[in-house]
Specification:
This protein is mostly helical and about 80 residues long. The protein contains two helices and no strands.
């Protein structure tokens, strides 16, 4: 399976991609994903940093998970 990754700015609805020449006539999947700008990427990190240091754990959910752990994985003595 051949994988080709091309990064380029789209300036037209007609793309010229010479990297695809070996795949002409073959069945392929084409995925186009917009890459975030530097400003957008920075804002994403700002949101993550804003959460750092905050306690976001639901105490009741934690207790339920601990109970399930003890039920399915009992502590073993040495």
């Amino acid at each position: 399976m051949t994988v080709i990754q091309v990064t380029q700015q789209v300036d037209s609805d007609t793309l010229q991609l010479p990297e695809l020449r070996p795949l002409i006539g073959k069945r392929v999947e084409i995925t186009i994903r917009e890459m975030p700008s530097e400003e957008t990427a920075k804002n994403g990190w700002d949101g993550l940093l804003a959460l750092s240091g905050k306690d976001l754990i639901d105490p009741e959910a934690y207790k339920e998970l601990r109970a399930l752990d003890k039920e399915h994985w009992p502590e073993q003595s040495p």
